[in-house]
Amino acid sequence: MFVDAHAHLYDGDVKLIIENAKNNLVQKIICASSDIETMQKAVAISNENEGVFATIGIHPQDAEQFSAEIEIFMKKLAKNPKVVAIGEIGLDYHYDGPAHDLQKKVFRAQLKIAYELKKPIQIHIRDAMSDALNILSENKKLLKYGGVVHCFNGSKEDAEKIIGLGLDFTIGGVCTFKNAKSLQETLKFLPLEKIMLETDSPYLAPEPVRGTKNESKNIPYIAQKIADLKGIDIQEVARQTTKNVERVFKI
Length: 251
Ligand SMILES: [Zn+2]
Hints:
Blueprint: E1 2-7, H1 14-23, E2 26-31, H2 36-48, E3 52-56, H3 68-77, E4 83-92, H4 100-117, E5 121-126, H5 129-138, E6 147-150, H6 156-164, E7 168-171, H7 181-189, E8 195-197, H8 219-230, H9 234-249
Parallel strand pairs: 1-2, 2-3, 3-4, 4-5, 5-6, 6-7, 7-8
Helix pairs in contact: 8-9
């Protein structure tokens, strides 16, 4: 059995996507959210579908949406037992989005919410690794309930720092790309006990279906790549990554 620890399910025929996933042994899916609208959708989809769970959070590119009212709203939503984490939260300097200072403020505020709610976090970091690592290190106390760095694509040194903070990694289709040599090297070094699988669907479909609309059913391609890189059996990747999800997200 596999788990897709980070997918965006709110587009397309959700029932069919979930059914396709289950037919490919992907039995559980964590549906991530990024703004007010997708938080509500993710929670609704998790309520309606067995094996689907939700995260709630304001993505750094939507940092302007965050407010005291949203904090109250998130705390209300989090009472639903299907809400398993706060995310995606973090820093994204790739686009001309919200000012970096605002992103940092909203990231810190949501780390605090996760701590208060006793929930793990799901972190998005793009072109902002050093600022993100600084914020995480300065707020280590708030990381008590663990969490993951999603779509991790950093160096070995970054990975070591993240492990030192007690966090894990969710690894997606990028690791199957031919030009992802440095991530592949990092994956050889990362302990399997720290890795979970994700699609980040509908984005980032893995090889050999790269360029198509990604779905949770593609998780086994990512698992196979990790198995190949580590010289182990795909069954072992399935077993351990599922165990890691259970440890962090309590599902
Ligand atoms: Zn995502």
